[in-house]
Amino acid sequence: MNARATTIRIAVIGHTNAGKTSLLRTLMHDRGFGEVSSRPATTRHVEATVIELGDGWALELADTPGLEDSMGLLDALHAADSSPRVSGAARIEIFLDSLLAMTDFAQEAKALRQLLASDLALYVVDAREPVLGKYQDEFAILASSGKPCLVVLNFTASQGAEPARWRSALQTAGIHNVTSFDSVVFDAADERRLWQQVGLLLPAAEAHCARLVASRERELAARQAQAARLIAEALTDCAALRAPVRDAANGASGSLLGPRVRTREAALSRDLLCLFRFVEDDYEARDLPLAGAAWTLDPFDGELLKELGLSLGTSAAKGVAAGAVVDALTAFHSLGAATLIGGVLGAGLDAATRLGRHVQDRLGGERFEQIDEATALFIARRAVMLVHDLTRRGHAAQTAVAARTQLATALPGEADLRREIGRAGRHPEWSELGADADPDDAARSRGVQAMLIPLLTALRATVPATVSDRADAH
Amino acid sequence: MIRHCKASLRGAICGNSSRPRLRACVLPCPTSPSPVSHLTSVSDLQLQTLAWRHYEEARGAPLRDAQIEASVLGDAVDFPQRVALRARAFCARAGLDPVLLRAHRRSRQAAVLAVVVGSLLGTGTASLIPDGTPARANLMDMLAALLAPNLLALLLWLLLQLGGSLRERGASGSWFGSALRRLVDRLPGDQGRDAPADVTRAVHRGLVDYYATTLAGRLHLASLSHLFWLALASGAMLGCWWLLALRQIDFYWGSTLLGPEAVAQAIDSLARPFGWLGLPVPEAADVAASRIDTTLQDPALRARWGWFVLSALGVYGVLPRFVALACCQALAAWDARRPTIDDAQPGYWRLRPFLLPTAPASRVLDPDDGASPRPPAAGPGAGTDGSESPPLTAAWLALERPLPVPTSALDLGTIADRPAQGRVLAALAANAAWPALVVLAPVAATPDRGLAQFVAALVAAAGRPVYLHIAGAAPAALTPTDLAARIDDWRALAQAAGIPPACVSVATA
What we know:
The complex is a heterodimer of chains A (474) and B (509).
Chain A: E1 6-14, H1 20-28, E2 46-54, E3 57-63, H2 70-80, H3 88-96, H4 106-116, E4 120-126, H5 133-144, E5 149-154, H6 163-172, E6 178-180, H7 188-201, H8 206-240, E7 243-246, E8 254-255, H9 257-275, E9 283-284, E10 292-294, H10 302-329, H11 337-363, E11 368-371, H12 373-391, E12 401-402, H13 414-425, H14 442-462, H15 464-469
Parallel strand pairs in A: 1-3, 1-4, 4-5, 5-6, 9-12
Antiparallel strand pairs in A: 2-3, 7-8, 7-11, 10-11
Helix pairs in contact in A: 2-3, 3-4, 7-8, 8-9, 8-12, 8-13, 8-14, 9-12, 10-11, 12-14, 13-14
Chain B: H1 2-14, H2 42-59, H3 66-75, H4 79-94, H5 96-128, E1 136-138, H6 139-163, H7 175-185, H8 197-213, H9 215-246, E2 250-252, H10 260-276, H11 284-288, H12 299-336, H13 346-349, H14 352-355, E3 363-366, E4 395-399, E5 410-415, H15 418-430, E6 437-442, H16 449-462, E7 466-472, H17 480-497, E8 504-508
Parallel strand pairs in B: 1-2, 4-5, 4-6, 6-7, 7-8
Helix pairs in contact in B: 2-4, 2-8, 3-4, 5-8, 5-9, 6-9, 6-12, 7-8, 8-9, 9-12, 10-12, 15-16, 16-17
């Protein structure tokens, strides 16, 4: 690893159960960091994690034990040295050398020691709490430490949160560097603002914080594009799947369609969770309400006819070209017969390839079914909503995202998506789930690409609106 | 769009660096005790990476091995490097390497075949050109037959390179990749005769990706083509030399439209590079003397034309292909030393959580040494509801949050700061007549050590029965399990403060 020129140390301080570890989990996009619970004194040690900023710069974020008895701590600090000429930081140092710092206030002493060793303090406040005397005592202790401090109002999106009251109380206490960041309901705008404010408080690191912000934004956009691609792949697999219907008389009853489509949808959910750095426990999957439809060739389907016409035309043109070469080789003594035969053969072979299998199945009495358009659209809507939920989910969230079972609202750009789903339905070879799978087919790639556009439109319309809306509210 | 997404991801991975690269020059072999790979070159590493991605994508999930991951995290710095080293370790373990080695053998066999077929074709074509007795050869026909296909193919290849039709399209997105995949899928089965079908399929796909999507792979294919044409041109040159050495051939030219001056000018232009190389060059008089209607040729003239033909084959047939082959090899070697991975592929980004953890350097700076006071644990009987309801005529106070107090009770208010705590403790000492004290504990508040200290102080100062009544609305964020744990914490606090379990009651909304 590159040698670091500078490490900026940030201590994450706050009352017990204010969500310090949760904040770090969400800031790091890492649900595995530390331990999170609603009980007091969950974190009992100082644990640091690092964000590399490039050019040898790094941010070291230290999670500290909560300040549990801040009123007692303030009393103890004053008792350590009550002289008005001693600075706050010196008073804390004196306190840290005292017996109390090793016994009754050992937990608080760890936090204070880390605070003094840091360049900046992130003071985490649970905005759902009333502004109590113990918190005001914590402001006083932090202010006396002489370290720049950014107050982070946590859980601001929760019911009962009162960020305005907190801001007012903090201003009264002379603390003006305040930002909101909900560690459970993630908001990219809040994250951006938090790092920007860190940059403002530490001018030497401002450019690096700006780079971190830019990098996070790129990552967000990239995740959205990847999510669209994953959904498009899964939709193609599901919509194109043409599963045989087995007769009960043959021993295996029912259709293979349902299990295959459900398994594919579950795999899509897993991939989306992984993309957003979550795990399966973060999602409460629910069964897909599935409706199959007997598949029959509709000779009057306009899109099918168009596709067939294009394909036959292309194949005939290829045959004509090949025949023309033969004619040319005979110095046109064949009078264009090869050209004619080539055209007919090209079109005939294409038609035979396209329709032969269908005719063969019909003659063999084989029946197939496919998911209907509504089911395919439901899969798309549910996946888009999952992306929405995961984009808004902090890595500290403890309750699982529940899969939607009712999705009546159409997605933006759904008409285009519907058309692409219909197109996929006419190509069973596009489905990786089917027996005729040809997932590397160039036409399949084009089909997936075409599906990406309406999906990205839907994602962009659904996901970022909720992220930036709250940004302007502050 | 996907390209843009990849670019964004690259930025996210590597900060401001332009593209993540497999830094081949510093690629060490993993130190884990997994089977050692016999494929050690950098292009092999690229192939292994691609094949392993296809193998895992077909499985639907990445394989996990703590030993390999630890070794890879220790050996490599950035994500592409880690992906590649992990693939190498797994390919050796899962049996992909033997199939890849067989593919290598096929590649060498194809090169040998190209050389043999090219040489035979070249020699054969050259030997067919002279006709009649005495042997005569039309110069223009000869040069066209021996050089034109070669030069046209070279021109086409250069145009394709410049047009970029094969670039950045992917195995599935280009006609070339698609055709190549179909071809590879139809290869005879001996390539994977003793390997499972999924392994063989993954290797085939990896090979297609390598040859169709990576610059090094495309250059290797191009090298094969150049090798064939080089062999053909060399074979033709050798065949001509053999013919010219053993037979007397008159060279002539004939044209309806072009006069001797024009042909002489063309020959002169063609032969100019020969002069720079010190080879004999035909002159205008030689051209005039070699017209089709000339019957007898001077032996020196024949020799000059012979050298001209050999030189033309060398300079316009062998040399360009040799240069192209050398360039392709050099470029392939250069690209193999700086290969990229398409990290937008699911098979790669699924590895990010464990090959590129966001918080790789999480470490404990100041451990829990046990000196910190622990939250009180609930003792025996603490979990039962109080048998005694809090007396309605006692003095009541609420901790931190206002809670409803019975009208018959003496309301001491909400105690939310140090001065209020002091006032209550003083009032308790001053009013001995109060029969009991009821402490309202809001279930929404976390029972921290500060509160525990205060409740203990109340019990010590009260000198009368103290009740703890857990009340108020539970926060929406608390799950039923969390709520039960919160109530237990309050009970434990009460017990630690000296309030008997019978005096603790719960009435939460």
